Amino acid sequence: MNVLTGVAVVIVLAALTELLIEAVKPGLDPLFKRLPIPDDVEPYFYVSLVLGIALCLLFHADLLTAIGLESPYLSAIWFQRGATGVLVGRGANFIHDAIERLSKPGTITVETTPLEGVEESTTKITIESEQGVEHVDA
Description:
- By secondary structure, the chain is an alpha+beta fold.
- The protein has two domains: 3-103, no CATH class; 107-137, no CATH class.
- The protein has helices at 3-34, 43-59, 63-66, 76-103, and strands at 107-114, 121-129, 132-137.
- It has a three-stranded antiparallel sheet with strand order 1-2-3, with no helix packed on it.
- The protein is flat and about 65 Å long.
- The mean pLDDT is 81.
C-alpha cells in the first residue's frame, strides 16, 4: 500500500465511521441519558475511537506501514493498526464537525479592487456566520 492509498483508506474509514455512528445514534442516545455520564464527557468521541480502531483491525488498515514506519516485530502490527484506528476515529469527528459547520447558514462576499498602475488586483473575502464576521485578504 502506498501513501496515497493509505490516506484514502483512512478517509474512507473515517467517513464510514461517521455514517455508522449517525446511524446508531438514535438508539444510543436513550442509553447514554440513563448512564451517569458527566456533562463534560462526549460519549460519541469514545464510540468513534472504538469503532475506528475496530474497523482498522477488521480491514487491516495500517497507515504507519504505508508511510514507511514498519516494525520488524509481528506484534507491532496490532499497535500500528490501532494507531491508524485512532486517526480514523478522530477523523470521523473532524468530518462530522466540518459537515456541521458547512450546513449552517452564512454569507460569503467577495470584493475585487483593481490597483492603479498594477496588473494584479486585491481580493477581500468576508464570511458571515453565526460565529461572527471574518475578513480575509487575498
